[in-house]
Amino acid sequence: MDDQLRQQFLAETRKALDLMQTRDVTAEKQEAVIKDCIKNFDKYVNPGILEYRKSVSTDYAAVEWRDEGNCFYDIHGNEFIDCLGGFGIYMLGHRHPTVKDAVQAQLQHQALHSQELLDPMRGYASKLLAMCTPGKLQYSFFCNSGTEANEGAMKLAKLYWNHKKPDHKNGMITCTRGFHGKSMGSLSVSGKGEFRDAFYPLLPGVRFIPFGDADALDKELAICDMIGLDIAGFIVEPVQGEAGAIVPPDDYFPKVREICDKWGVLLIVDEVQTGMGRTGTLWGIEHWDCPPDIMAMGKALGGAVVPVGNFMATPEVFEAMFENPYIHTTTFGGNPMATAAVIGALHATIEEDIPGQAATKGAWLKEKFQEIQKRYPDALVDVRGLGVLIGLEFVTPEFGYAMSTGLFGEGVLVGGTLFNAKTFRIEPPATLTQEQMETIVERVERVLVKTREKHLKGELEALH
Ligand SMILES: Cc1ncc(COP(=O)(O)O)c(C=O)c1O
User: Fold this and answer.
1) Which of 424, 456, 453, 452 is nearest to 440 (CA)?
2) Is the CB of residue 273 below 6 angstroms from any atom belonging to ligand 1?
């Protein structure tokens, strides 16, 4: 780096470092930050994002600056009630004091780990998870995201069958419309063509069945048996999140457990989105009698302060990793800051009965949305979900997209995208206040009435 570039470089780092320390941003500075942000995204992040986000238009860009309670605030101080954040990371609201204090306290003496000395917080976090997860789940492997948790979970399933046992099972069964992440292994078991198309060939030996149909699993396993494809695991979400909050029939999971046992297949439950209280029980699978062999988690696990993923397994299954614990590793997984966040998040989740709050508040919201649906069945065609994982399905993708854009304008963030516009998810923190819930419902109805008028007049813009 020559001297001139070095000076420029240090000036740029200093500018960002000073901005982080700034609490009251002047109007002039606000405009400068917005300009920088747009320019940097355009030149150095991905200009496609500027096209794609509802928060950016030719004369306006909402740049996030602060979050607190159940809301995001942009740099001008505009408030957005969060029914979207990270597609389900904010179960405890934003920067929950117990989690923030845990991470800050940990940071005062150690941030990351040696990989040689033993890290105590990893031990405590693992013990706590063993105490609060279903069935015989006991051992934890921490990583950094949901997709990594599923990669590890699937590797463990294969290792279990291939390591000590003579069975050698390598195949996986998964569900259409399911979502498990976008790294190659997780993508291979995710059931949506638009994410997969460009990346074939994906992992071999993956079979797809419809979600919620236990007989389909039994039949598919019979076919696999006939053609000599040995299946190591069935990976499934308790409630399909990304697909739009799809809840299976009540007898589905108990039957799935029986079928997996009958065929000798490990059941991998993906709790990345449904875990930590989201569906009204601590783990989504707890709505049914169906203890998993392996369970993946992420999103809200780090209390929305530090990113963290994890997969757990029963002693019988996890034992496959005892002999060589380094057969699957990740540099940052289980680091002290992440596990401090997990401990803080678990403490607050149980202390404040976050699952109970999600159950009651989710039921209230769902009922209100269903009342709106009754008033406008030609616009809102379905309301579904469990706890605070609610899907609203509209009559057309154009309608759904106009709804999510309209709600953005009204200060409510929901998960509607150009690619997946017809249905959007309402995934707020379980800590929403009654007043905030009433505001959300009132704004949803107001935007729906306006959108419906345009829809009936044929004035909604076609999505390309
Ligand atoms: C059920 C499920 N599994 C896995 C993932 C992937 O998690 P991440 O984006 O942290 O890799 C997601 C993300 O939305 C998810 O909803």
Assistant:
1) 424
2) yes
Atom of ligand 1 nearest to the CA of 150: 4
Cβ neighbours around 302 below 10 Å, total: 26
- What is the spatial distance between Cα 19 and Cα 292, in angstroms, rounded to a whole number? 46
Structure tokens at 152: 């590890």
Give me the CATH topology for the region 97-351: Aspartate Aminotransferase; domain 2 (3.40.640)
State the pLDDT at residue 418: 60
Chain centre distance of CA 254: 24
Take atom 16 of ligand 1 and give the residue whose Cα is closest. Answer: 273
Mutating to test ligand 1, I would choose from 91, 147, 150, 271 the residue with most ligand atoms within 8 A of its C-beta, which is 147
Ligand 1 center to 372 CA (angstroms): 30
- Looking at 266-353, list the stretches that DSSP marks H as alpha helix, in order from N- to C-terminal side: 315-318, 336-351
Fold for domain 354-456?
Aspartate Aminotransferase, domain 1 (3.90.1150)
C-alpha distances in Å from residue 214, one per residue of 176, 209, 217, 234, 243: 13, 9, 5, 12, 18
What pLDDT is attached to residue 62?
87
User: What single-letter DSSP state applies at residue 83?
Assistant: S
| pTM > 0.90: yes or no | yes
272 C-alpha vs ligand 1 centroid, how far in Å? 6
- Residue 412, phi then psi, degrees to nearest 5: -125, 120
What is the DSSP code (8-state) at residue 82? E
**Atom of ligand 1 at shortest range from CA of 309:** 10
| DSSP H helical ranges for 112-196 | 120-132, 146-163, 184-188, 193-196
How far is the C-alpha of 167 from the C-alpha of 379, rounded, in Å?
Answer: 53
Q: Which two tokens stand for residue 165?
A: 């046992």
**Whether the Cβ atoms of residue 338 and residue 330 lie closer than 8 Å to each other:** no
Stretch(es) of the chain classified as CATH 3.40.640.10: 97-351
Q: What is the pLDDT of residues 298-331, one digit of tens each?
A: 999 999 999 999 999 999 999 999 999 999 999 9
